Amino acid sequence: MARTPSIGLRRARPDDHLSVVEHLDELRRRLIVSALALVVAFAGMYAVHDALIDALTWPLPSDTDQLITLSPTEPFFTTLKVTFWAAVLIALPIWLYQAYAFVIPAVAEQPRRVVIAVVSGLSGLFVAGVAFGYFVVLPVALNFLTGFGGDTFNTQLRAGEYFGFATTMLLASGLLFEVPVAMTALSRMGVTSAKMYRTHWRIALVGIAAIAAVLPGGDPISMVLLMLPQFVLYGVGIALSARFGQAPLWSRDEEPDPV
Predict the structure, then answer these.
(1) For 58-69, how does the pLDDT look when each residue is reduced to its tens digit (9 = 90+)?
(2) Which residues, at least 6 apart from 173, have a Cβ–Cβ distance to it below 8 Å?
């Protein structure tokens, strides 16, 4: 049985017949690449952390007072947390590609054009999701939440809690926009199919609503804003699965007799 002595950073092919040790070695290299991507992104974001903090405070209502801190160390650690989560947002497309390049080729050989399309799709959809969360969802959610109750409450926002809320919302929004790619990947692996997605669309809609409900914010307006594009993206995922998917694994052999 032929073996590949070293696969470097290229994608493993189904016919490489890698041993367990070689698979672990490939995984180690991909984890190193992912870690380096995070380190580089963190350094870049820290270099512009003042502009980054200003950008994250833009969605706040204009009548909101300056963010407060309650300890001498909070400004420093809050800045580090903001920088870290911004680095995660930047590095996540690379992480997703590394996961794709490690898992999917083990199931089926991927032409170079397919890999390029997947990488472009992952990055483009993630950026679109973050932009949608930043320009649409976050301002609406903040206006609703900080203005709720009118003059009953004297709303003051703590810096650490606000930035945690904002970065989590943006990260979740970016991940939600990856739904079509995840659907296509599962279909490509033979785990699901476009027919299955069409058959169980009601369950998918309930799942989309549940995810939107547990995300930061939780108000009805931001929930609807997050759900609407997901309905469209679910349809896109069905179309891509029909085009690039393959027969489910359970249907390639004779189906078992019903119990």
Answers:
(1) 998 877 767 888
(2) 129, 130, 132, 133, 134, 137, 226
